[in-house]
Amino acid sequence: MGLCLLTPIGAYIVWYGKGNHLISSIFASLPISVLLWEGYSFYYTLSMPQFLDIIFAVLLLFIFSKNSKQILRTVLISLVLFFIILKFDIMYLFIGGL
């Protein structure tokens, strides 16, 4: 039930991420950094599903970005968010002990 309530928020974030402003780059960086976090274990396990998460993150970067300036902003913000998620284990607050 909770996931159904969060879906419109995620849709708004993705829709607004197609813009040209700094806030659009921040919104586009959120799903990209989560996909990078999911695919991070590929470095250790060489598992194909984790590799697909990394590929999808790169594809999402090019889908969201309209020019090279926005690509650079989105990559930098995504990397910062990725390391914040990784360092502080923020995703475990959402997914629990799964």
Question: What does the model show?
Answer:
This protein has 98 residues and is mostly helical. It has a domain at 29-37 and 51-89. Helix content is 82%, strand content 0%. It is built from six helices and no strands. 18% of the residues are buried. The model has no long low-confidence stretch (mean pLDDT 85).
Labels describing this entry:
single chain; about 100 residues; mainly alpha; 6 helices; about 80% helix
Brief description of this entry?
The protein has 98 residues and is mainly α. The chain is 82% helix and 0% strand.
SSE topology sketch:
Layout: H1 2-16, H2 22-39, H3 42-45, H4 48-64, H5 68-88, H6 91-95
Helix pairs in contact: 2-4, 2-5
Can you tell me the residue ranges where pLDDT is under 50 for at least 5 consecutive residues? none
Fraction in beta strands: under 5%
Average of the residue pLDDT scores: 85
**Count of separate DSSP helical elements:** 6
N→C terminal distance: 17 Å
Q: Would you count the extended β strands for me?
A: 0
- Rg, alpha carbons: 14 Å
Largest sheet: none
| Envelope shape | globular
Helix content: over 70%
Q: Spell out the helices and strands N to C.
A: HHHHHH
Structural class label: mainly alpha
